[in-house]
TrEMBL record:
GO terms for molecular function: ATP binding. This is ABC-2 type transport system ATP-binding protein. Residues 10-237 form the ABC transporter domain. The keyword Transport applies.
Length: 307
């Protein structure tokens, strides 16, 4: 486990990234501190900026403004820092013409902290033939190979960008199980970007909801669930919410409204019947709220209203 004084796995201040001549906004003023030793779920719709954030964390691209540190240093600051981070990109890319054994040799050549015993043990455990070419592997087998290569570096931080999205349920289950085994064995932090909330709920103890290029909410999963509630109240009751209650999303049905709220105190102390929220309800509530904000901006612009 990381030392108590270990720097955050990731720390961002005013992090902004724009692309192209027109400055398409991918991330906007992101402020975020992720403690070391956590398994972080990064969730949000397509185009929210998840891959951009992970690419910035790996040093694959540079921020437009703001700052970002990973394990206390600038991303990819030097060869030593690169070795401390393992990255599995979307579609778990590997070299199709290389055998599994050749992937292991390349990994050992490029990474000074390479652990051949760990690599060979894991390749054997998942039933991969070292002489087989990667191009002949199934999607689940390629994912296991990519995961093994990332973990055999013995990194302090593992980053996964939608690694299991294209896998069938059985292969995905095996991948997530091995991911958690690696995290425990290495004592590493991990960031898992996924739109599959069931996967995130299985393995992550820290959640970041990223929508509309901004962090909508982030924190310990248990704390977030404990601090939110689902309420059914008379319609119009929350036109002016009581002190200590923030309405995240609300749906109206007849004379009643169904609201997901965040409370400053225990939800059980509210003068309403409070029900616990699921992780899916919490994430969807923040995504719904984020989606409504750009729509409101667009409508205001169309009517010539001030922004």
């Amino acid at each position: 486990m990381p030392h108590a004084d270990a720097p955050p796995a990731l720390h961002a201040e005013g992090l902004t990234k724009k692309y192209g001549r027109r400055g398409r906004l991918a991330l906007s003023d992101v402020n975020l501190t992720i403690p070391a030793g956590r398994v972080i779920g990064l969730v949000g719709p397509n185009g929210a900026g998840k891959s951009t954030l992970l690419h910035l964390a790996c040093g694959l691209t540079e921020p437009t403004s703001g700052s970002l540190t990973v394990l206390g240093s600038r991303p990819a600051a030097n060869a030593s820092h690169l070795a401390r981070v393992g990255f599995v990109a979307q579609n778990t890319p590997v070299y199709g013409s290389f055998t599994i054994a050749e992937h292991m040799k390349l990994g050992a050549k490029m990474n000074p902290s390479w652990d051949p015993v760990l690599a060979e043990r894991r390749i054997s455990q998942v039933g991969l033939n070292p002489e087989q070419k990667a191009g002949q592997l199934s999607g689940g087998q390629r994912a296991q190979l990519a995961l093994t290569i990332a973990a055999a570096k013995r990194p302090e931080l593992l980053i996964f960008d939608e690694p299991a999205a294209a896998l069938d349920p059985l292969a995905r289950k095996g991948f997530l199980q091995n991911l958690m085994e690696f995290v425990l064995e290495l004592g590493a932090s991990a960031v898992l970007s996924s739109h599959l909330l069931g996967d995130v709920e299985q393995v992550c103890d820290y959640i970041i909801v990223l929508c509309d290029s901004r962090v909508q909410v982030a924190g310990d999963t248990r704390d977030l669930l404990a601090g939110h509630a689902r309420l059914v109240v008379p319609r119009g009751e929350f036109d002016h919410p009581p002190a200590g209650v923030e309405v995240i999303s609300i749906e109206h049905s007849g004379k009643h409204s169904n609201a997901i709220v965040r409370t400053s105190g225990p939800p059980g102390e509210l003068p309403y019947q409070a029900e616990p929220v699921t992780l899916e309800e919490l994430v969807l509530a923040y995504m719904t709220r984020a989606a409504a904000v750009p729509a409101a901006r667009t409508e205001a612009a169309a009517w010539g209203a001030p922004r």
